[in-house]
Write a structure and sequence with these properties.
Helix content of chain A: 40-55%
Largest sheet of chain A: 5 strands, parallel
Number of helices of chain A: 12
Structural class of chain A: alpha/beta
Low-confidence stretches of chain A: none
Number of strands of chain A: 7
Largest interface: A-B, 24 and 24 residues
Distance between the termini of chain A: 64 Å
Shape of chain A: globular
Oligomer: homodimer
Radius of gyration of chain A: 20 Å
Mean pLDDT of chain A: 91
Chain lengths: 310, 310
C-alpha cells in the first residue's frame, strides 16, 4: 500500500505528478486550501474585515471556491462577510438545475446567496439574445461574457461587497494568456497579473485558485462530495480555448509541471507589462467604466435590442 | 483562370490565405525579397558597407536567405561583403551531401564560402559526441546548438564579418518564444526582440526572415529552383518544438494569420522585456562571453572530453 508522503499514516489517494508526492485524501484537501490561502496572501487579495462576493455558477470550480473560502472566513474572518452571487443568464433547462444546486449548497454551508438575472439587469436573457443577435459572428460566449462580468459586479455592489472573487484556475489563466497573445491583445496581458487592480468603481477582483491546476480542483470537489452541475451550456461554442486546453493537457502529461512553469513565466511577463489602468472615460450611456465612449455591455444591448436602445 | 492580384497579368500560382491575395510566381518571389528588405530596415539590421556572414547549412531556409541576400547586396551593397559560413558537425552520411550542395550553390551565385568543423574547433565531432556524452539527458540538439552558435561566431570572426545572419523564420521564432515561456526562461524572451543586440564581441546577430512564414520560404525555394538538402539529421530528437509546430500549423489552417498575430504580440512582449545584456564576466577557460564562470561550450567540451579538459 502506498502511504501518504505528508502524514506517513493514511493510504495515498492522489499522485501529484509534478511534485512526485503521494497524498491521502485529507492531506490533499488541506494542500488545496493552503494553496488558496497562500495565493490570497502573496498577492494581497483580501484584507481582514473586507466583504467578499463569490461568483458562483454551480460548476465544480466555483462551488469548490465557496467551500474553501467559507473555511477561510470561519478561521480568519467574519463568516457573515461572505456572500455567493449567482447570475441567471436565462437558459432554459440548463441554468435551472444549477440554481437549485447553488441554493442548496449555500444553505448547507450557511452562506448568504444572491441571484440576479440578465433579464432584470439588461432587459434580455440569453435564450432571447441568441435569436436577436444580428449575426452569428456575435458569439454566444462573447455576449454572455460581457454580460456576466457586469452582472457579477452589479450583484457584488448590491450587497455592499468590497471584493469579488471568481474561481478561475491556473488552466483558465494559461489559456487566457495564450488567447490574448494569439489575438495580438498585449494590453490585456498587462492586466493579468494576479495582484488585484483597484477599478474606478473601487471593487477589487481576485482569483484565489489562479495557482491551482484544474484537475486538482475537480479532485477536491470529488473528495468533498461537492454536488456540481456537469452538464455543459447548450450555447457553448468550440473555440481556440478548447484547442489550447487539449494542447496544454497533452504537454502536461508528457512533462509534468510544464503548465505551472508556463504559469510562472506568464506571471513574470504580465508583471513587467503592468501599467496603471487607463483612467478611461465613463460610458456615455450607463456611466460605468469604458475604454471608449460606450461600454461593451451597452454596445451589446444596442445590437440586440435595436439601434439607439441602450 | 485566377489572375495575380498584384500585376493583374500572370496566372496566380500562390494563394496567401492570411491576406486573401492570389500571387503569380514573380510577384510572390518579389514579395519575399521585399519583406526581408523591410525587416532589415525596420530593425536596423545592416548598415551600408558592413560585412555579412550568413550561416548556411544547406537546408531550404538558409539557401533561400543566401539567394535573397545576394540580390540585396547586388542592389544595395558591395557583393564582395557577403560570405557564406558553413559548419561541418561531423555527421557521417548526412553532412557530406549538404556540404556539396552549399559549395555548388555558392559557386553558382559567386559568393565566397567558408567551412569550419566542430572537430577542428572543439576537438570532437557530433558522431563522437553521441558516444562520449555521459548521459542521454545531454540531448544531441542541445550539444549541437551550443557548438553551432559558437562555431558560426568563430567562422564569422575569421573572415572579419561585422554581422552574422541566420535564416530563422517566423515559425521558428514563435516556437522559440513558447519554448522559453514553457521553460520558465523569461530572461531569454527579452533577448528575442528582432533588433540586434551588440554583443561584447561586437558581432551583431540578425534574422532577416523573422517576419516570413516557413511555408512561404519553402515555396520561394521551390520557385527559384534552389537545390536543398531535405534529409533530416539522424540525431534529431522529437521535442516540444515539434508539438508546437504542429499546434501552430493547425491553428493557422483554421485561422489564417493567427501565427502572424502571435508573432506581433510576442515582439511587443519581448520589446517590453528588453534589458541591456548583462555585461557578464568572461569565460575563465576560453575568455569569451559567459553568463557564469565557464561558458556553455567549455562546459559541454568538458563533459565530453573529461573533467578538467576544456
Amino acid at each position: 500500500m502506498q502511504v501518504c508522503d505528508k502524514c506517513h499514516k493514511d493510504p495515498s489517494s492522489y499522485f501529484r505528478a509534478y511534485s512526485g508526492e503521494h497524498l491521502c485524501k485529507k492531506c490533499f484537501c488541506r494542500s488545496i486550501e493552503e494553496k488558496a490561502a497562500k495565493t490570497i496572501s502573496r498577492y494581497s487579495m483580501l484584507k481582514y474585515g473586507e466583504k467578499l462576493a463569490i461568483g458562483v455558477s454551480g460548476g465544480k470550480d466555483s462551488l469548490s471556491l465557496l467551500h474553501v473560502m467559507k473555511k477561510f472566513f470561519d478561521d480568519h474572518g467574519k463568516p457573515e462577510n461572505l456572500v455567493a452571487v449567482t447570475i441567471d443568464e436565462g437558459i432554459k433547462g440548463y441554468r435551472d438545475e444549477s440554481l437549485d444546486i447553488v441554493r442548496e449548497f449555500c444553505s448547507k454551508l450557511g452562506v448568504q446567496s444572491k441571484v440576479l438575472s440578465y433579464k432584470e439587469l439588461f432587459g434580455v436573457n440569453m435564450d432571447e439574445a441568441m435569436v436577436l443577435r444580428p449575426s452569428e459572428k456575435m458569439s454566444s460566449c462573447s455576449m454572455c461574457g460581457t454580460f456576466r462580468r457586469r452582472a457579477i459586479d452589479l450583484a457584488a455592489e448590491s450587497i455592499g461587497a468590497d471584493v469579488v472573487a471568481t474561481a478561475h484556475n491556473m488552466d483558465d489563466h494559461v489559456q487566457t494568456f495564450m488567447i490574448n497573445l494569439l489575438a495580438g491583445d498585449v494590453e490585456r496581458i498587462g492586466w493579468m497579473y494576479p495582484e488585484p487592480i483597484e477599478y474606478i468603481s473601487g471593487m477589487k477582483k481576485i482569483k484565489p485558485f489562479v495557482e491551482i491546476y484544474e484537475r486538482e480542483i475537480a479532485f477536491y470537489a470529488m473528495q468533498k462530495e461537492i454536488p456540481f452541475q456537469s452538464e455543459e451550456c447548450p450555447y457553448m461554442n468550440e473555440s481556440i480555448r478548447t484547442d489550447l486546453r487539449q494542447f496544454f493537457n497533452s504537454l502536461e502529461d508528457a512533462h509534468p509541471g510544464i503548465k505551472y512553469n508556463a504559469y510562472r513565466s506568464m506571471t513574470k511577463v504580465s508583471d513587467r507589462m503592468r501599467r496603471p489602468m487607463q483612467r478611461a472615460g465613463k460610458c456615455q450611456v450607463c456611466g460605468r467604466d469604458a475604454t471608449g465612449d460606450i461600454c461593451s455591455v451597452c454596445k451589446t444591448r444596442s445590437a440586440l435590442l435595436g439601434k439607439g436602445i441602450y
